[in-house]
Automatic annotation (TrEMBL):
This is dCTP deaminase. One of its GO terms (molecular function) is dCTP deaminase activity. It comes from Nonomuraea marmarensis. Transmembrane segments: none annotated. The keyword Manganese does not apply. InterPro entries: dCTP_deaminase, dUTPase-like_sf, dUTPase_trimeric. Keywords: Hydrolase, Nucleotide metabolism. Its EC number is 3.5.4.13.
């Protein structure tokens, strides 16, 4: 079951969902609009290697916006910190942003129960596209879970700003302290 807008609002007020800052104008019939934060990361090497950390370069989006280029992966983030210890969150791009040719979060839309923080967004434009900080970029929905909850305690907990992949840590878990 998916939460309706009024239930998202009620859950945000009673603590079952954390959305900070919360704005009632961003509540939809069955989702909550999230906004683009002011920082983007891009990988700086021509080849991204899944077996090691990859260097990134931060870009700050100012009020004039920033033009995203095709064939480039941008890691953005939600302005809002979002999480729930009760519901399963799913984040998708907004259809109006998709109609501009921007793919948002197409490979990893599901969040874990117990994750709290800003969500990293994978942004990929079809054509050059200017984006702005604070623009409504996606929408998050909350689903009722069934069964015993084992909350998320992973490597991205309490994320602030865009987070590059830490997949390499899984591969080298035995080598890490």
């Amino acid at each position: 079951m998916i939460l309706t807008g009024p239930e998202i609002t009620a859950a945000a007020h009673d603590g079952r969902i954390r959305i900070s800052p919360f704005n009632a104008e961003q509540v939809n019939p069955n989702s909550y609009n999230v906004r683009l934060g002011p920082t983007l990361l891009t990988y700086t090497e021509p080849i991204i290697d899944a077996h090691r950390p990859n260097p990134t370069k931060p870009v700050t989006i100012d009020d004039r916006g920033h033009v995203l280029q095709p064939e480039e992966l941008y890691l953005g983030h939600t302005l809002e910190e979002i999480g729930s210890d009760s519901f399963v969150p799913l984040l998708f791009g907004r259809s109006s942003v998709g109609r501009l040719g921007l793919f948002v979060e197409i490979t990893a839309p599901i969040g874990d129960i117990g994750f709290h923080g800003q969500w990293t967004l994978m942004l990929s434009p079809v054509r050059p596209l200017r984006v702005y900080p604070g623009m409504k970029i996606g929408q998050i929905m909350f689903f009722v879970s069934l069964g015993v909850i084992d909350p998320y305690r992973g490597k991205y907990q309490d994320a602030a700003g865009p987070q590059p992949s830490r997949y390499w840590r899984e591969l080298h878990k035995a080598d890490l302290p």
